[in-house]
């Protein structure tokens, strides 16, 4: 089941909260002069805050190895939470350890910059947060026309400037720089994150896969189907259910990476990647305006649907619950798993939102693929009465769609005895 996944996620939190700050705290504790003992707690909090901010920068580089362990949505959520906690600790550090001169100035500048970026990001970039608060979600939709995604990405990068200010802030504190073991760990952590960030940018510019958009067609109202052909000497590590980040380096407003699920299962025989993209934001609404032949950059794959399936026995019945455009990652799993017993419950707000319906109907001819589709959401009884009354211990559940729908079905399934380890979903809330 998902024991390995839950263990990995829990271990990640444990390492971030306790293991990473520990060397900084130990070296500080051992070397801090007794005269500063009354301020020691505030100093320790500052060290923890710095370690968490470095960690959040590392997570922002989207390390593939960690994505395959805990998933990118969880990485982004951790990134946001520890950033907020780090800023809170920074304020406690400021008020508990007064300073003056450039020490105070660099610290204050860093805190104010972090705080401003945090407030902005909580509205425009922390989808895991705004999707849970209707007011913020509505505010974001209203302001999206002004604060484009590319602007948000660049503003978010000001965190690097704020972190550099903290780095300088520490260099100005003589009694801290005199603690050589602490400074060794401090420089080591800073150097690792700096190199990781630079390497991620180098990979983005030089190492990411290049390709060409070979088709760009209207799949449904407000939905484009893109077929991308990577250049032959590039290689993408793709699995069924994965998503890739794409950007268009030659097109204004489309140069920052955005994630989209692959529709077709990856295989050695297939030399193309198919994406179905709904025009929800400033990036996606521009996709209908360009013609085939446009250069594209790709990074990936990312995602844990395939890992989830591998963690479970082959004889488990796969029950899929999909809403609207959220069906896209599940399509590649259905097509690429003809030997698995699969039931798909697919719903959308309107008929035209039920994409790839003819393809799904063709697959329905397979003996072990059970298709259900309708306009309007499924009720709890629609799914429970059809499947779960006789499959509670021999079924696994993949959910894909809007974040509220995913959370609803997780609650329903758990209420009806389905264990957390039998359910997997990836929320596209960034």
Layout of SSEs?
Blueprint lengths: L2 H17 L2 H10 L8 H21 L3 H7 L1 H25 L4 H24 L2 H4 L3 H10 L5 H8 L1 H14 L2 H4 L2 H28 L1 E12 L2 E8 L12 E5 L10 E4 L11 E6 L16 E8 L2 H6 L6 E7 L4 H9 L5 E7 L8 H7 L5 E7 L4 H9 L6 E6 L2 H13 L7 E3 L5
Parallel strand pairs: 7-8, 7-10, 8-9, 10-11
Antiparallel strand pairs: 1-2, 1-6, 2-5, 3-4, 3-6
Helix pairs in contact: 2-3, 2-12, 3-5, 3-10, 3-12, 4-5, 5-6, 6-9, 6-10
How would you characterize the overall build of this protein?
With 430 residues, this protein is an alpha/beta fold. It folds into 3 domains: 3-206; 209-303, Beta Barrel (Elongation Factor Tu (Ef-tu), domain 3); 306-425, Rossmann fold (3-Layer(aba) Sandwich), CATH 3.40.50.80. The chain has 17 helices and 11 strands. The chain has helices spanning 3-19, 22-31, 40-60, 64-70, 72-96, 101-124, 127-130, 134-143, 149-156, 158-171, 174-177, 180-207, 305-310, 328-336, 357-363, 380-388, 403-415, and strands spanning 209-220, 223-230, 243-247, 258-261, 273-278, 295-302, 317-323, 342-348, 369-375, 395-400, 423-425. The strands form 2 sheets. It has a 6-stranded antiparallel β-sheet with strand order 4-3-6-1-2-5. It has a 5-stranded parallel β-sheet with strand order 9-8-7-10-11, with helices on both faces. A hairpin with a 2-residue loop joins strand 1 (209-220) and strand 2. Helix 4 crosses helix 5 and helix 6 packs antiparallel against helix 10 (158-171). The mean pLDDT is 87.
């Amino acid at each position: 089941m998902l024991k390995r996944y839950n263990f990995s996620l829990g271990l990640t939190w444990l390492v971030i909260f306790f293991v990473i700050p520990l060397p900084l705290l130990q070296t500080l504790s051992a070397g801090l002069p007794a005269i500063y003992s009354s301020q020691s707690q505030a100093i320790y909090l500052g060290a923890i805050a710095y370690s968490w901010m470095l960690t959040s920068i590392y997570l922002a580089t989207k390390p593939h190895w960690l994505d395959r362990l805990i998933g990118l949505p969880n990485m982004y959520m951790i990134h946001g939470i520890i950033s907020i906690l780090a800023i809170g600790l920074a304020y406690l550090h400021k008020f508990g350890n007064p300073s003056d001169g450039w020490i105070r100035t660099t610290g204050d500048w860093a805190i104010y910059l972090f705080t401003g970026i945090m407030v902005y990001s909580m509205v425009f970039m922390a989808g895991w947060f705004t999707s849970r608060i209707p007011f913020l979600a509505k505010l974001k939709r209203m302001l999206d026309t002004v604060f484009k995604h590319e602007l948000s990405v660049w503003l978010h990068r000001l965190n690097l400037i704020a972190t550099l200010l903290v780095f300088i802030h520490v260099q100005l504190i003589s009694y801290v720089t005199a603690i050589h073991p602490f400074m060794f760990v401090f420089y080591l952590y800073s150097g690792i994150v700096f190199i990781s960030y630079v390497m991620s940018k180098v990979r983005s510019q030089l190492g990411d896969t290049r390709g060409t958009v070979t088709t760009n067609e209207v799949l449904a109202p407000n939905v484009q189907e893109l077929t991308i052909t990577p250049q032959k000497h590039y290689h993408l590590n793709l699995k069924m259910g994965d998503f890739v980040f794409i950007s268009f380096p030659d097109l204004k407003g489309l140069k920052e990476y955005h994630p989209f699920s692959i529709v077709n299962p990856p295989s050695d025989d297939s030399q193309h990647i198919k994406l179905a993209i709904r025009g929800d934001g400033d990036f996606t609404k521009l996709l209908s305006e360009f013609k085939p032949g446009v250069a594209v950059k790709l990074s990936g794959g990312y995602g844990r649907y395939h890992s989830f399936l591998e963690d479970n026995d082959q004889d488990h019945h796969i029950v899929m619950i999909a809403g609207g455009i959220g069906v896209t990652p599940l399509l590649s799993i259905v097509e690429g798993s003809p030997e698995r017993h699969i039931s798909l419950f697919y719903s959308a707000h309107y008929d035209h939102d039920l994409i790839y319906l003819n393809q799904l109907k063709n697959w329905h001819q397979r003996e072990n693929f059970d298709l259900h589709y309708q306009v309007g959401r499924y009720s709890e009884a629609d799914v429970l009465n059809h499947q779960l009354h006789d499959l509670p211990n021999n079924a696994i559940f993949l959910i894909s769609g809007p974040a509220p729908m995913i959370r609803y079905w997780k609650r329903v399934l758990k209420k009806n005895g389905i264990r957390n380890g039998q359910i997997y979903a990836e929320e596209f809330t960034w």
